[in-house]
Design goal:
single chain; 193 residues; Pnp Oxidase, Chain A; seven-stranded antiparallel sheet; three-stranded antiparallel sheet; 3 helices; 14 strands; globular; Flavin reductase family protein; Flavin_Rdtase-like_dom; Split_barrel_FMN-bd; oxidoreductase; EC 1.-.-.-
Length: 193
């Protein structure tokens, strides 16, 4: 997910530099002060080349919900903040939109099927063979992951057809074993030396 800053405008009598000091003319623009957005296919093609760690985000409503995310980011250490993106058309979004806390699970290379289950539309994600328990703040915590966090949601920022969720870490466990699972070229992959 990418957020483009407002670069201002330039026109007759201006130098092609916005008030922020960033040029607004040149390749990728269709005229003075007007820029075009890249087509979604270009965006997807570029990000297929970007290897990302794989996480599962969980939350608790009447029933537990969860989804696979590759947008997990460490935002700050003090206070400890993370962010992730969630599509507003996702079946998990209505619960995440109201949740006070979420679970964040870092998956290992041995958990490709778990990642696929939480990415699959219509799947019963918490049915066997998924192993989980109710953790701090009532958040579903997955067994066997490399690490997990429980985080208090502090903001949900609109970003196109997604929301960027910012959350403060309140509990966790970094002591799982194994190597991380990655997502690259549309597939779940193992980390290679």
């Amino acid at each position: 997910m990418t957020v483009s800053p407002d670069l201002g405008t330039s026109g007759p009598g201006t130098s092609g530099v916005s008030t922020s000091g960033v040029s607004t003319s040149g390749p990728g623009t269709s005229g003075p002060g007007t820029s075009r957005l890249a087509p979604p296919d270009l965006f997807r093609s570029v990000f297929r080349r970007h290897a990302a760690g794989v996480a599962v985000i969980t939350a608790r409503g009447e029933l537990p919900v969860g989804f696979t995310a590759t947008s997990l980011t460490s935002v700050a250490a003090e206070p400890p903040l993370i962010s992730f993106g969630v599509g507003t058309s996702s079946s998990s979004w209505p619960v995440v939109a109201e949740a006070g806390h979420v679970g964040v699970h870092i998956l290992g290379e041995h958990q490709r099927e778990l990642a696929a289950t939480f990415a699959r539309s219509g799947a019963d994600r918490f049915a066997p063979p998924t192993r989980w328990y109710t953790g701090p703040e009532g958040v579903p915590v997955l067994d066997g992951v490399l690490a997990w966090l429980v985080c208090r949601v502090v903001a949900r920022v609109p970003a196109g057809d997604h929301r960027v969720v910012l959350a403060e870490v309140v509990a966790g466990d970094p002591d799982g074993t194994g190597r991380p699972l990655l997502y690259h070229q549309g597939r779940f992959n193992a980390l290679r030396d």
